[in-house]
Structures are given as C-alpha cells and as structure tokens.
Task: structure prediction
Amino acid sequence: MKALQKTAPTFGVEFREVPRPVPGPGEALIEITAAGVCGTDVHIFEWSGGYDFMAPLLPLTLGHEFAGRVIDVAGDANGLAPGALVAVIPSTPCGSCAHCLSGAAESCERRSAKGTSADGGFAPWITAPVVNCLAAPNGVDDELAALAEPLTVAQEAVLKGGVTRGDRVLVIGPGTIGQAIALYARMAEAAEVVVVGKNDLLRFETLRALGLRDLIDIGDGDLETALASRFADQKFDIIFEATGVPEVVQEGLAFLRKEGVLVVAGIHPRRAALDLTRLVRERHQIRGTQRAPRHVWPRVLDSLVTEGERIRHMITHRMPLDHGVEALELARTRRASKIILSPGV
Result:
C-alpha cells in the first residue's frame, strides 16, 4: 500500500510503498476512511522545529487524526464488530513505567503516538490497540469521527483553563485548535469569546460559520496595538495561545487580568521570553496543554452528536489521500483550514 511518509529530517514528505499492517494480539486492523491534516503534520512537513525527536524514527507515516472501519481483530474484540466506524486515540501509554503503574498513564514517558513516533493514518490501513478504538455514536459519520482527536485537544484546553459561566475568554490563533477552543468555551457558557488572527480571512469565515462573531484580524500589525484600545481596561479571565509563535505568550499576558490563566496550546519552534516580575506581581498562571486524557474522548464524541453539523463547518477541503502533498501545501500556506483526506476517494 502507499503511505505518505516523512523520510528525512528536512523539508518535504513523499509517498512510499509499505507493507499492509497485520494486527498483533489485542489490535484491530482498520481501513482508514477519513484523516485530518493537522498543524503538527504541517510542522513536520516543513521541519520547522519542535519535532527533532522524530529524526531517528524516520521513515514514518504521518497522520494522527483519523477514523475508519474495523476489518479484523486479533484476540478479544472488546465489543468491536467488523464494519464498525471507530475514532482512534492515537497515543498509547507503555503500561509499565512508574506513571502508568501508579494510574497516571497520561504522564507516561514512553508512550507511542501514531503519526509522530509510530506509523500514522495517512495510509489506507492501520493497526491500533482495540482499547484505543472508540465506536462512533449513531449520527456521527466518518469525517466527523476523524475530527474527534483535535476536538479532544481543544476540550482539554478549555478544561485546563477552567472556563466557567460568565468568563471572558480570548483565543489567540484561529486554526482548528483555536476554533474548537472558542466553540467549547462558548459551550461552557463563557460570557465573551474573542478570537484573534493575523491575515486570516478563510479561517475567520469558518469561525463565523461556527457561530462566533467577535473576531479581530490584526493584519500586519501587532497584537498589543490591535487589542489595546478595546481591552486595556477590560482584561480577560482566561487566554488561550494557539499560534505556536513564542512572542505571543508575553504579548497575551498584557491582556490577562490579575490572577488570570494563560493556557499555552501551541507547539513552539524556539523559547519564549517572559517578564517574570510582571507575572509574579499580577499573580498570573501559565498552564500547558497538549493531548487529552481518555475520559475526555466520550465527552467529545457526545458533542459530535449534538453539535456535529455545526462542527462540520470546520472542514473546508476534502481531498483524496494521493493529493496529500498538495493538502499539506494548502494548509501550510493557510489556503485551507481543516482538510480531510480519504484513501478510498
């Protein structure tokens, strides 16, 4: 089968012929029907920083946002039936480190992750642990199920930030994660949700389709100047950084109220400089967030049942897998928001 792989620690990816995977004990063979292109895939495609740990593992099939149909199961099916549509948790803890043995598997230091440390979903078939295969609820189709992974990242960020009724929320970065953070913050009954972007016409159109209206495009200006006139005296309770631009962290803190929370969700190619004296005096909290623990996944799948048609607006392009390089270029140049690849198209 042909898979889209990162083959060298430099710019680019390529399609390579690889063996069809065979499920081991406790694994399911899945025919992939929908796979999302993520900012992570773009960073790896560009080799722009933050993923150097992958170099010894190459070549590696990319893609960690995917869903598909169960073809076969080796061993206990755990209720999975052939043909069932499943969303797949791409991260698998080792089960034997101190964190795993203490019940804190989310902090596992030897986890395997589809698309970054193990072959991912930009291929026609994949194997995954049965326990990582979550049946899609009735009414959730393949492309919505493929959105589950980024939605769990966003839902976990909102939970990490502690958004509650009445909060004023700023989301910096209108990509898929920022879009979903804004959506889940609204669902958590935040009183105000403002999203900031930079020359982001297409992604702002997606946000409007999601029902979000308070959008600020700073164009070629800077964040502080763009926000100062409106928010210098009305600071936010919680700010989410979803850009991957280190300078945004310090710039965002200028609009955070005393004792407010800044949640960093972006992967950054270099270190950020912070005014720690100001942080201490303002009693700010900075929290990092990345993947979601397992218990968040059912919550997100439930939201796809109730909000699926609205969430579907996040998908701006649908393309066959063999156009995967083109899809990465579209995402890299921000000519697309969320792209869904389908091997069978």
About this structure: The two ends are 15 Å apart (CA to CA). The first helix runs from residue 39 to 46.
